[in-house]
């Protein structure tokens, strides 16, 4: 039987030069993060809200939605277009509208657990949540990776706590929750991101060991982690759960069938949990990434022939970046997504995987 490490390496390119480490990717993440902020914080009011957040002030109670008046049909076209122009001017400068967009994406005061978050999509999700003001709790199996991720996030002024957690172990999941409660006083967000793929080949050659491992880490642990945190979300009046599935959950990838099936199960878990937890004001959503440039998928994007073939299926002809998934996860956890639950957002560059 393989060790866990051996199994995990099945999808990892052996060329060290092509591996991505948190350090090597950080420059891209930060750069993109800054661009995001400058694009969305154009108005002086928006910048003010951002500054208030960085000082630790809660901006989440800023005035809410105001309806922009629509000119009645009978208004003369000339006057109507003048009115429309003023409406657009108002949208650009109205301080209430400016504050609204900032406060709805703000996660100030929230506590977010992201599993498997010392690299790749998990780290990018932690960064996106942290940039919106959440205190993020990062974890993975190896202490050295946790330390690196904590240092990286702290260097971007993100409030962060780190601990080791192998999501496949009950005692580790409990420790992750307890550390969060001890250090942050509660939990509002769970991003369940961990997955393994110990098998590459024909489905009929996969063994029970393979299935047990994949289903236990990728599906059962995701559910059990949710079950652990929900009572604490209820105490806070609600929360958000986001599962990280895969495009393979819609269309099984050749040679990755057991893994694909586990990702299909997460689509079902999202749908099953959403109605039950809605009564506790907890939204449950899912993201299904396509091929994203991380260590996990380096066997795919590290091979030029595979990439060229794969690009034919894409509308956006490039491999995705982790922060392009992280931002969607943060959106799903924000007030901007307040009417979305039981949903899976595909982040694939346009792969046609569903209607
Ligand atoms: N990359 C893609 O193309 C792609 C596409 C679709 C879906 N996804 C999904 O996205 C998620 C993240 O993948 P990724 O590509 O970001 O991977 P990645 O860059 O290789 O990062 C994996 C992270 O998971 C941690 N980890 C691995 N096994 C763990 C376990 N049992 N318990 C806790 N932490 C664990 C690793 O740290 P340690 O080694 O320290 O534990 C690392 O921080 C997975 O659910 C994957 O299925 C990825």
UniProtKB/TrEMBL annotation:
Coiled coil: none
A GO molecular function held by the record: carbonyl reductase (NADPH) activity
Region (Disordered) residue spans: 1-78
Keywords: Oxidoreductase
Family according to the record: Belongs to the short-chain dehydrogenases/reductases (SDR) family.
Protein name: Dehydrogenase/reductase (SDR family) member 4
């Amino acid at each position: 039987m393989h060790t866990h490490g051996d199994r995990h390496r099945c999808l990892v390119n052996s060329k060290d030069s092509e591996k991505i480490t948190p350090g090597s990717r950080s420059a891209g993440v930060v750069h993109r993060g800054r661009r995001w902020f400058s694009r969305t914080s154009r108005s002086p009011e928006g910048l003010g809200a951002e500054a208030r957040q960085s000082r630790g002030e809660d901006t989440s109670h800023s005035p809410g939605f105001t309806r922009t008046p629509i000119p009645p049909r009978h208004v003369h076209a000339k006057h109507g277009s003048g009115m429309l122009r003023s409406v657009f001017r108002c949208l650009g400068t109205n301080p209430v509208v400016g504050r609204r967009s900032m406060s709805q994406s703000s996660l100030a005061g929230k506590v977010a657990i992201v599993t498997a978050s010392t690299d790749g999509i998990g780290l990018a999700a932690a960064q996106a949540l942290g940039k919106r003001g959440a205190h993020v709790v990062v974890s993975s199996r190896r202490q050295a990776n946790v330390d690196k991720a904590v240092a990286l996030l702290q260097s971007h002024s993100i409030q962060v706590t780190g601990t080791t957690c192998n999501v496949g172990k009950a005692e580790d999941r409990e420790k992750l929750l307890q550390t969060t409660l001890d250090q942050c006083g509660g939990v509002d967000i769970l991003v369940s991101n961990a997955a393994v793929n110990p098998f590459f080949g024909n489905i009929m050659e996969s063994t029970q060991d393979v299935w047990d491992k994949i289903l236990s880490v990728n599906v059962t642990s995701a559910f059990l982690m949710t079950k652990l945190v929900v009572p604490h979300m209820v105490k806070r009046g609600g929360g958000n759960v986001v599962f990280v599935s895969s495009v393979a959950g819609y269309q099984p990838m050749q040679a990755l069938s057991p893994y694909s099936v586990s990702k299909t199960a997460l689509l079902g878990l999202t749908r099953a949990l959403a109605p039950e937890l809605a009564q506790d004001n907890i939204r449950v959503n899912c993201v299904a990434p396509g091929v994203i440039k991380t260590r996990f998928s380096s066997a795919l994007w590290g091979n030029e022939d595979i990439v060229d073939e794969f690009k034919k299926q894409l509308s956006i002809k490039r491999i995705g970046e982790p922060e392009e998934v992280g931002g969607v996860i943060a959106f799903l956890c924000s007030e901007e997504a307040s009417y979305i639950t039981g949903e899976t957002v595909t982040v694939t560059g346009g792969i046609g995987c569903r209607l």
